[in-house]
Amino acid sequence: MTDDAQARIAEMVAKSDVLLFMKGSPLFPQCGFSSRAVAILNHLGAEFDSVDVLQDQGVRQGIKAFSDWPTIPQLYVKGEFIGGSDIMMEMYESGELAQLFEEQGVVSAG
């Protein structure tokens, strides 16, 4: 994995309040886990950016090293790695994710 990919990933994470690295796009997710992650974010009313890892092999491999997390999707909020779709689901069900978004000011109240 190249330093270039790491630098690009770091830049993407830094410039987006809520960023989802996923397979496919929010309109056309290419796997069930990515689809579930998008559904959670949409349900919470979060404005988010996404990166299709299928379009960039460097990012696809690099993101796993960047976060030290083996799977995709991966969610970042204000530069902090939150987790994959299982963690997102658990946090969503417990209300933690909505609370985090509210605390970080990344979701419109109501």
TrEMBL record:
SUPFAM superfamilies: Thioredoxin-like. Keywords: 2Fe-2S, Iron, Iron-sulfur, Metal-binding, Redox-active center. Residues 18-82 form the Glutaredoxin domain. InterPro entries: Glutaredoxin, GRX_PICOT-like, Monothiol_GRX, Monothiol_GRX-rel, Thioredoxin-like_sf. Signal peptide: none annotated. Gene3D superfamilies: Glutaredoxin. PROSITE patterns: GLUTAREDOXIN_2 (PS51354). PANTHER family: GLUTAREDOXIN FAMILY MEMBER (PTHR10293), GLUTAREDOXIN-RELATED PROTEIN 5, MITOCHONDRIAL (PTHR10293:SF16). Belongs to the glutaredoxin family. Monothiol subfamily. This is Glutaredoxin.
